[in-house]
Amino acid sequence: MELLCCKIGDGSKALFWLDNWSGRGSGPLKDLFPALFYNERNKWCVVKDRVIYGLPYDINWQWKQPPWHPTIFHMISQCKQLISPITLQIERDKWVWGATNPIEFSVGSVRALIEERLLPYDNFKIPWIKWVPLKVNVFAWREGLDRIPSKDCLIKRGISINSMCSFCSVHSESSVHLLLRCGIASSVWDKVFM
Ligand SMILES: [Zn+2]
After folding, report:
1. How far is CA 94 from the centre of its chain?
2. Distance 97 CA to ligand 1 centre (A)
């Protein structure tokens, strides 16, 4: 969620302490200044409740008890410094997505980011042939990824079985052997290409 950031407009949507709005990657203020958050009277306040329109250096703090310790005063100063570049605008707050090149939040942008960051990269492609049944294309795709349940794949997944080829019982059964190199498979291919 640290990738989701609010670009402050009128400050009416972003939660002052709980949302990530003060700067890309800096996180919510509650995590940066936990002692101040503890002393906040309304933990669900929005940005415009604290940041005064047109006065970026003045903050409308609402403390449970007046700040009492030099460390607290130092934190207040740091917090003001962090958010001082942000001023309230006329337009509404806008959620942006992405750490390096923020773009406006949308389902499509989330999907693209998940694909980019979380899904394993795989550049394996097979030609999709329309005139054969779908299951044949899927089988070829799985075979290309070495994902058909040949005996060596099943053994890798912890299944205890005899590793020898089901056709010839001479070689271990990999997908390549099963489909290309086995004598039985070769004789089938010979008939296909006769
Ligand atoms: Zn064989």
Report:
1. 20
2. 53
